[in-house]
Model the fold of this input.
Amino acid sequence: MIAALPMYDFPELREAHDLLWAAIARRLGVAGVASVPSQLTRSLSHRATWMHPGLLFGQACEYPVSKSFRERLRIIATPRYQAPGCVDASYRSAIVVRKQDSAGSLEDLRHRRCVANEADSNSGMNLFRAAVAPLANGAAFFQSVEFSGSHLGSLQQVAAGEADVTAVDCVTLAHLQRHQLQLVSQLRVLDWTPASPCLPFVTSHRTSDDMLEKLRSVLADVLVDPLLGSVRGTLLLEGIDPSPDPAFTRVTQLELEAVRWRYPQLQ
Done:
């Protein structure tokens, strides 16, 4: 089995992620779970962890899970984060431009250069598409759309003038405001996208119902343990919603709304 938390695993957060996993692993061991991995796996891409048949505990982006990995993963719980743009177990993406950009609204970015992290990202594409769709009139809105491979890479391109706008999930932005202030100080939030559920904690589709309930119980316990308060604070974790929507209703709804606006892809 493996465990991996790749979605927010910036270098500055790795120690906190290790401590979080150690607390989860210790409780799983006490609960009688055998062969619990002692360390997080960091040698695989996030997509490779989602495909891994031995994934015990991970985190994923809802849009690619709903589109491509639905049969590979089971949802453990949806986290609640303490970051501007988060409400309960939902989050938004910040629409970010350079600090000195003259744009006063999203409409002002028509025919400008867009960069997103990945073509199937919920925060970088799906939520952004939902924000742009009502303005696009069924046509291409941006001059160009490129993909950087990461939210950090997208922000770096905007700051460097290689692109004009990107959408970054609010939890990533909050972490970077703490740890990449020099970069973030060159940027500003122009607007916000609609909201959807936060990036869920997941496990392999092979995980049994009994193990799934143990994972939920252990995670809930870890997220109220007073001895782990500083770890949760570092990770901006407030708690979990233990009853996630396996149908990904909100994510799918946003996609269908964009299609109704005749804007099926970010362009």
Remarks:
- The domain at 2-83+197-252 is CATH 3.40.190.10 (D-Maltodextrin-Binding Protein; domain 2).
- The longest strand covers residues 73-81.
- The radius of gyration is 19 Å.
- The first helix runs from residue 14 to 30.
